[in-house]
Design goal:
Length: about 200
Amino acid sequence: MELLLGTTNPGKVEEAQNLLPGSDQGLNLLTREDISFSSVEEDGLTYRANAIKKACEIGKETGFSVFSEDAGLEVDALDGRPGPFSARFAGEDSTDERNVAKLLEELDGVEDRAARFVSVGVLYLSSGRLLVRRGKLRGRIGKIPRGDSGFGYDPVFIPRGCEKTLAQLGPKIKNRISHRREVLLKIKTQIFQDL
Ligand code: IMP
């Protein structure tokens, strides 16, 4: 069985490869290095709209079953921002470092730093069937970036019950608790039934 990972983010590819079954269990995970596909503009207003758009466009272009996902960071003190606009928080063509810097700037002097990561994953089956699943990770935003693993806002996100950031905790622990894990586990149970 073949499933194409519909993302250009190497951090997400690695997490999906760690969490989904491998070829030893009969699932051949393909990436953009195996099957090329065009970039999809994420112009939806919700995670769900963006994830469905990515999975469907890549699925139709390539003819493969595709898993795509859209995620973001929601901060209580910012009324849920940056949300679906997390990648572009500091402007178009922003970088992780600039987004983190803007976040820390906006939260300067703010005591309530509660936040959550939200992920919506979509499995597009070449039969045209769609499966949509959601995952969440609660935590808070630290005062300075710490740690160097992961990507995006990992250096400032401290999961609930922890003192370290996701970037300090590293991939093994992140993959045990993350919003993407919740989505991938829900999707995984469907894969062998539907692919
Ligand atoms: P997208 O889903 O690739 O559009 O990602 C949206 C934004 O949220 C990007 O800036 C990511 O860096 C950020 N993001 C999504 N998931 C994570 C995560 O697990 N850790 C840190 N940042 C994330």
